[in-house]
Amino acid sequence: MPPAHPFDFDAVDGDKLHEECGVFGVIGVSDAANFVALGLHALQHRGQEAGGIVSYAPEHGFNSARRFGYVRDNFTKQSLMETLPGALAIGHVRYSTAGSKGAAIRDVQPFFGEFSMGGAAIAHNGNITNAEALRRELIERGSIFQSSSDSECIIHLMARSLQRDIPARMEDALRRVEGAFSVVAMTRTKLIGVRDALGVRPLVLGKIGDGWALSSETCALDIIGAEFVREVEPGEMVVITEKGVESTRPFRSRNSRFCIFEHVYFSRPDSIIGGRSVYETRRQIGVELAREAPVEADLVCPVPDSGTPAAIGYAHESGIPYGMGIIRNQYMGRTFIEPTEQIRNMGVRLKLNVNRALIRGKRVILVDDSVVRGTTSRKIKEMILDAGAAEVHFRIASPPTSWPCFYGVDTPQREKLLAATMSEDEMCAHLGVDSLKFISLDGLYRAAGEADGRDNSCPQYCDACFSGEYPVEPADMIEKGFKLKAAE
């Protein structure tokens, strides 16, 4: 089955790092799948290639639907939602990983397994860094894989466990797994949520009427009218039934290493992380950036939409006026016609247009969330200069991205990351701008609420994409020849 959008072409977001998944689950409400569909719609920014929902009703058993494309294009159809009855459901949205465009429908989660004590479905956000080694072992022992997803390893490990109930089998399986995982799973009577011991990827618990919800972000609780209760803690498993929430700690306790890029870009600005507003953290990043990298200019302009809160913070701290110098076409989404070479050459202009009357003759500070390959940054700079800007200065709301992520983020190979091969001055020359400055790692930590900055002996977050310090060694990648920072 081909993707729903065979001519996907994203001129701007193609030069961004992407989360690969969002998860959502509900128990104890009528037509739970409808609530899950709404939750997945709110999490669409975490995965736009495909989505899936599994539901359970005693009289109908387990039912599932997996589709390519947006949630709004699939899971809003009454004819489809009627096939997903019950008061218990989980769902998943995904991006494909690098190089896997056109993935098969069998790779779309949630995955389902039938065990001796009943069926179970599982949806996973993150990445298993020893998945290839586990897959080889499982295949040698007779497991037959139906997908190319590393998440399917969890189902097979559960099938081989000797534990007597599904939550215990899941504990068994996840103890074998390395990397990052936030899991939402379901049996016939239980909704289960688990985070790895480092808590790299997010997962939150909400209350809706007499029922409960699990979600990657709080913004998805808002859309269904659920009350945010708390975050599922690193290393915690919650098992939710009609009796309530039971919490256990199946993994060895470790210092948490939540992904700091969730603060910078991945999470929606209206979500709450660690008790902090994502929007406020991003605004504070702009404040720190203005303190660290001031420059004389006439206008602070965000690269929409992800650069907007930081630009507001930069303008407020610097005293330089804020202006919408670049306007995003909110209805572009994906190209509405096949992207011929001529359309591809339009590039960024398909999504962004310069507000010429505001830009002309101005010294402009452009605030963006990150620089990955640099291709989009160069095109935006050219658009600003073509509009008559006197100077263009880039201020970036994250440190240089010089290392790939192996914990659930679609990252180019290291040699394709601009910061991996160039110094800041070389990047400035390559982009052709008057100045280029990134926020420091300490500045980013301060903006995220760590007043003393980064604790280098025991970092408070996972910042491997900036520092090259991986809290869990990427075993599969090392086997393929990837060199860690210490080995260089």
From TrEMBL:
[4Fe-4S] cluster binds at residues 259, 405, 462, 465. It comes from the Bacteria. GO terms for molecular function: 4 iron, 4 sulfur cluster binding; amidophosphoribosyltransferase activity; magnesium ion binding. The keyword Iron applies. Keywords: 4Fe-4S, Glutamine amidotransferase, Glycosyltransferase, Iron, Iron-sulfur, Magnesium, Metal-binding, Purine biosynthesis, Transferase. One of its GO terms (biological process) is purine nucleobase biosynthetic process. PROSITE patterns: GATASE_TYPE_2. The keyword Kinase does not apply. Mg(2+) binds at residues 306, 368-369. Pathway: Purine metabolism; IMP biosynthesis via de novo pathway; N(1)-(5-phospho-D-ribosyl)glycinamide from 5-phospho-alpha-D-ribose 1-diphosphate: step 1/2. Binds 1 Mg(2+) ion per subunit. Binds 1 [4Fe-4S] cluster per subunit. Its EC number is 2.4.2.14. The active site is at 21 (nucleophile). In the C-terminal section; belongs to the purine/pyrimidine phosphoribosyltransferase family. Catalyzes the formation of phosphoribosylamine from phosphoribosylpyrophosphate (PRPP) and glutamine. This is Amidophosphoribosyltransferase. The gene is purF.
